[in-house]
Amino acid sequence: MRIPISITEIALIIVLILLAPLAIAGLALINTGLGRSRSAAHSMLASLCIFAVAAGAYLICGFAWQGYIGAPAHVIVVAGRQWNWLARAPFFFRGMDFNASALSLAACLQIFSVGLAALIPLGACLDRWKLSAACASTALLAGCTYPLFAHWVWGGGWLAQLGINAAMGRGVIDAGGSGTIQAVGGLTALALAWILGPRRGKYSLEGMPTAIPGHNAVLILFGCFLALFGWLGLNSAGAMLFTGAAPVRVVLISMNTALAAGAALLAAVLITGLRFGRPDVSISANGWVGGLVASSASCAFVSPVAALVIGGIAGALVTYSVEWFELHFGVDDPGGAISVHAVAGIWGLLAVGIFARVPASVMNVAGDLPGASAARDSGQWLAQLVAVATLIGFILPLTYGLNFALNRIWPQRVPMEGERQGLDLYELGAGAYPEFVTHSEEFGQFR
Amino acid sequence: MCMKLAGFLLLLAGWAIVAAAVVLLLPANARTIFVLAGVGVEIIGLTLAIRSNPLAGREKE
């Protein structure tokens, strides 16, 4: 593992880490804009609460189970090979020196990363998720699901070891968190959307979806701008801390991130323009974020042209996926969280295996020396596929099971009266726009 | 609910095939085939879980 040594390098990483909260702010604005006006204040407050709970849960046990490359871990030995499956660090960050070491910088970045991952499900659960239940569900994500997968990919776990143990490229590469942050959050959003069910009035008695447009396009689009800055920080700092990318790579990472987002936006604008006669704001914004999400895994290891292609495909995937989930799968996802974060995140992981040229200096496990594995590039796509299979085959059932159990103990959906009033009035006692918003009755002829 | 449970069991079974192939098999070809088979099982499980949603596919009726 290449550890930052110079003060300039440390300063650069700290600046990049401090950009990361802008991704959270951007996503919170996008979610709020895509929801109803009568739940806007609730959405923003829930975003802050979710971040607070995620940071707290991560402090208590999250980082202890995630760990870091080279840190102590639980290991099982199968067929003569050691597989690292869970970190064994002290709870509450005990014993850590906060001295800008690689370990402490990674812990700092992770506080924001886990906050972003925990915020993603809110987009799929807008207008019907209790604040208390959102906090409880976040604790499960930040304390259990996220650290587990993050350890496997970023903490030198068994997915990162696929390179040295199974000759699959260099093990799973996910520089900025397409899988670790985005897909984990997106799959949790899918699980919660299943558990909560659609909003009242979303589907007619015949099962046809009704359009419930977002209430503020300016919030949505401003959130997209903020998200770009946040992603620049997340991708760059993540690449340096979790794959050992050199600081000079920040130039390429920044270009690739912006290009992927731009290509995704244009793809979404083009597709919705051709299909509906004019571009759709919310789907185009979702396309933009989908491009950012897809760029994360491979941002440090692909050419700008490849980043354009990755972003363009992500934009198209998100555009069609939003429609499929709503129309064919009966999943009500007001913020497009499942399509943007799960679908585009999985695509981003796979794109590493297709487009990336990973240099020999990249290391995601302890003891993997530069140049010692130069012949292992061939199986990279298989390593990425194993990561995707783990997300869908293990993380999705795990997060569904945890949230299903939580829902049995502590019902997560507000009663019908809460949806009718809006979550602002029902849970907070006051609206976000008390003086000039009126609502029509929507509950008559719908399920 | 039974259909969704079956879907999730298939998802877990598919992942178990993938993990077992990675950990236990040494020849690259066999490992690749079993990983792809595991992914195939997961796709069936995911399809089952999605189709178990009472609102899924209603637009065709």
What does this structure look like?
The complex is a heterodimer of chains A (447) and B (61). By secondary structure, chain A is an all-alpha fold. Chain A has helices at 7-19, 21-34, 40-66, 102-124, 131-154, 162-166, 178-196, 217-242, 249-276, 281-298, 304-328, 337-355, 380-409, 416-421, 423-428, and strands at 73-78, 81-87. Chain A has a single domain, classed as Ammonium transporter AmtB like domains (Ammonium transporter fold, Orthogonal Bundle). A two-stranded antiparallel ribbon of chain A has the order 1-2. Mean pLDDT of chain A is 92; it is low at 369-376. Chain B has one domain (2-54). Helices cover 77% and strands 0% of the residues of chain B. Chain B is built from two helices and no strands. In chain B, helix 1 packs antiparallel against helix 2. The two termini of chain B are 21 Å apart. The A-B interface holds A 78-79, 81, 83, 162, 166-168, 194, 198, 203, 206-209, 327-331, 379, 382, 385-386, 388-390, 392-394, 396-397, 400-401 and B 4, 8, 11-12, 14-16, 18-19, 22-24, 26, 28, 31-32, 35-36, 38-39, 42, 45-46, 50, 53-59, 61.
Distance between the termini of chain B: 21 Å
Alpha carbon gyration radius of chain B? 14 Å
Q: Write the CATH architecture name of chain A.
A: Orthogonal Bundle
Mean pLDDT figure of chain A: 92
Strand content of chain B: under 5%
Domain tally of chain A:
1
Q: What separation lies between the terminal Cα atoms of chain A? A: 56 Å
Give the low-confidence spans of chain A: 369-376
Helical fraction of chain B equals over 70%
Give the uncertain stretches of chain B in residue-range form: none
Number of helices of chain B: 2
Q: Domains counted in the coordinates of chain B: how many?
A: 1
Report the CATH topology name of chain A: Ammonium transporter fold
Order of helices and strands of chain B: HH
